[in-house]
Amino acid sequence: MSKPYVIGIDMGGTNTVFGIVDARGVVIASNSIKTRTHNNINDYIDELHHEINRLLEANNATDKIHGIGVGAPNANYFTGYIEENVNLPWPTPIPFAQMLSDKFGIPVAITNDANAAAIGEMTYGAARGIKDFIMITLGTGVGSGIVINGQLVYGHDGNAGELGHMIIKRHNGRLCGCGRTGCLEAYCSATGVARTAREFLEIRTDNSILRDLPIENITSKDVYDAAVAGDKIARDIFEYTGTLLGEALADMTVFSSPSAFVLFGGLAKSGELLLRPLREAMEKNMFPAFKGKVKVLLSELKEADAAVLGASALGWEAKQAVMAPAAAVGTAAPAAPMA
Known about the structure:
By secondary structure, the protein is an alpha/beta fold. It contains 9 helices and 10 strands. It has helices at 41-58, 96-104, 113-124, 185-188, 190-203, 220-228, 232-256, 272-284, 305-323, and strands spanning 5-11, 15-22, 27-34, 65-72, 108-112, 133-138, 142-148, 151-152, 260-264, 295-298. The strands form 2 sheets. A 5-stranded mixed beta sheet has the order 3-2-1-4-5. It has a 5-stranded mixed beta sheet with strand order 8-7-6-9-10. Helix 3 (113-124) packs across helix 9, helix 5 (190-203) packs across helix 7 and helix 7 crosses helix 8. It is globular, with a radius of gyration of 20 Å.
């Protein structure tokens, strides 16, 4: 190829990771910035542009970029917009693909961050060779990417796959950032775990390492560290979270009959603290036809690589995506060409 690289960008609610990726899916170099550093989206794009250019210059790749692919919360592959987002500090909708393309002068394609992670996992990770699976990203929020018969599902308007906003507590549920109550994201994200910790500490009276921390500053990492140390409340928090997530996965199964769920993100690294109650609850609540048939896998890609690699696959498709009519794009999961 005359331009052998693409840029993959994974925009999370906390951090934005970006990398230079070649046609074989090798991340040549990567870096990150804080997503919430700037209150103005234009200032954020300026910083992203500056840091990506620094990375390109350091790797002699300034004039070798074919396109840019972006995975971002609530991003729409059809329109190029970030729509109705609840985990970013800027007003939506944002014409992010066009803004970035104008800044860099090269084509940009964008999709939901969980969709990008699913593409990366299907192409390079645990979902290689699996035609039907659901990617679940457990980060600041809960995202999902649904793959059926080897194709990513976008729906008629590009917004399919918001399984983090399934309502799992129909009555008296927690308020979610989306404005509804009882969403899966409000319980099984990293922020959801921290909210559970605060609730448990207020309701219960038994001792806990977590009581040594300012209650409003407790994070999911604090809960994990306490659970590893044997703290009863912290372990109960993971039991509660894993059970809710397992019940939700059982419900998701009846929709598309996936052969696997692939878990990605910081919370997925909790290991058996989360996975044991998750698997037990999933099987207990599974529709009989699916019992024993659905695996729960962990991402095989390094931290952030699934989303960066998936976004980079969009980078190879960026020119076609931005030139195609909306009705024609996004019908299948793009994949990076293998040299």
